[in-house]
Amino acid sequence: MKSKQNTELRPGREVGGYRLDRMLGEGGFGGVYLAWQKDRPSALKFLHLDSVGPWGWRELFVLLPRQLPHVVRLHGHFKWPEDSPEYLVLVMEYIPGVTLYTWAREHNPSALEVVEKLLPLGRALKTLHARGVFHRDLKGDNVLVRESDGAPVLVDFGAGISPHAPRATWGALPPASLRYRSPESLAFIQGHQYVSKSRYQYAMTDELYALGVMLYVLLTDEYPFDGEEQEEVIQAILVGHHLPPHVRNPRVPESLSRLCMDLLALNPQERVPNAKVLCERLEALLLENRGEKRWELPLCYGWGDNEHTTEKDLPGGGAPPPGPVTPTGSTWMSRALPILLVLGLGAVLGVRLKERGEDLEEAPTPETVWTDQDIEPVMGATAPPPLTPNQKRAPCTAGLEREVNGGCWLPIERKSPKCPPQTLSYEGSCLLRVAKPQPVPVSLDAGGPAPTFEPPP
């Protein structure tokens, strides 16, 4: 389907009165193109009728009656070509902007700004849920931050469900990204993997759990659970022992961390019950903390000239705690150059993992760099050096990297105590952190296959 679509749908081609400009994204359910009708831009989603089947019509029925401020708008639809239709084409609102995860990576938001982005999504979900509509693939890649006003917009209802939509899910679980699936949905499939015609009943608590995962990633740049293999991720979700966000990133206010953990509660009965309650809690956080310095600090440490990491910058004084960082300003290259080789090593290892099929769907991860506190040499350090969220974990590359405190480090030829910047002194050696392999970007479309332990047809 993809190769034929790419051949037929070229920039400049006229389709149904629209002139194709360029492809915006492609995934399991179809390709999306920027197209123009006179001076009006639209996003055209092409769904191959034979390959996609009822899924295309399902998305149409989900979107057709929905005209909400923070939900992508459907302008129309048609079949193409007219004489012998092969595609269902959805004509949708074009939203110039970036995904929510990309916005976080580029903007380095404060806790207050994250709440301000989440609240409109909560209000949209409250209205959708009241109408019996569920998105079923909530993640940062399916939220666009509009360039003109910064408003978040929920997109890609390819896995959505509505009382008026035809049934299209024949597996036990609806399509979704594994890391956003709720523990109860994975427990269901494990208990019913050989039960004929078993179907999991997706609920509001599943959607709010996925929203909790999205919030966790925004606050910490980490998923709430660890694991490289699919089975490891599944077991981590089922166990549900997640570190609170404020433990992984001390710049996260505890009240916001608590809300995130309530969304991720293992027992759905203990979870935030619905989007209405979620909005009330988000509104209360904004009301109580607007103007509070801690809530207005960027969640990541920057290296800009105006981003001091001194006592006067932190509530209550004291040295800044270790945490994830984002490089800013012209100082990045001069200070980060020594770690570029390590980043390159991480990228190579990431390609190797991809070739072996060991990768999982992941949110885009910011470039891995560290705070001034982290990169200064620790003279005569006796305790194991701390790890950063984006640091590679063991197993480490044999003969090249050294494992210390569960993380991977690159030994430098120079010896302690005269360690260069960007390194740590430990047990007589100078160590440089090794970055995690960068993930493969996630498709713009919802889905991907359900876990491999789904019941056979």
What this model shows, in words?
The protein has 457 residues and is α+β, with helices and mostly antiparallel strands. It has three domains: 2-93, 2-Layer Sandwich (Phosphorylase Kinase, domain 1), CATH 3.30.200; 97-296, Transferase(Phosphotransferase) domain 1 (Transferase(Phosphotransferase), domain 1, Orthogonal Bundle), CATH 1.10.510; 334-433, no CATH class. It is 32% helix and 16% strand. The protein contains 15 helices and 13 strands. The protein has helices at 2-8, 49-52, 54-63, 100-107, 111-130, 183-191, 204-220, 230-239, 245-248, 254-263, 275-289, 293-296, 331-336, 340-355, 372-375; strands spanning 14-15, 18-27, 30-37, 40-48, 74-80, 87-93, 97-99, 143-146, 152-154, 402-404, 407-415, 424-426, 429-433. The strands form three sheets. The chain has a six-stranded antiparallel β-sheet. Strand 8 and strand 9 (152-154) form a beta hairpin.
Reported by name, the CATH topology of the largest domain is: Transferase(Phosphotransferase), domain 1
Largest sheet: 6 strands, antiparallel
The CATH class of the largest domain, by name, is Mainly Alpha
Q: Which overall shape is indicated by the principal axes computed on the Cα atoms?
A: globular
* Unreliable residue runs: 302-381, 438-457
State mean pLDDT (0 to 100 scale): 75
The count of β-strands is: 13
Our estimate of the beta-strand percent is 15-25%
> How would you write the strand order of the largest sheet?
1-2-3-4-6-5
Total DSSP helices: 15
Q: N- to C-terminal separation?
A: 23 Å
Helix content: 25-40%
How large, in whole angstroms, is the Cα Rg?
24 Å
How many structural domains in the coordinates? 3
**Which series of helices and strands comes N to C?**
HEEEEHHEEEHHEEHHHHHHHHHHEEEE
What class, by secondary structure content? Answer: alpha+beta
Q: Any idea what the CATH architecture of the largest domain is?
A: Orthogonal Bundle
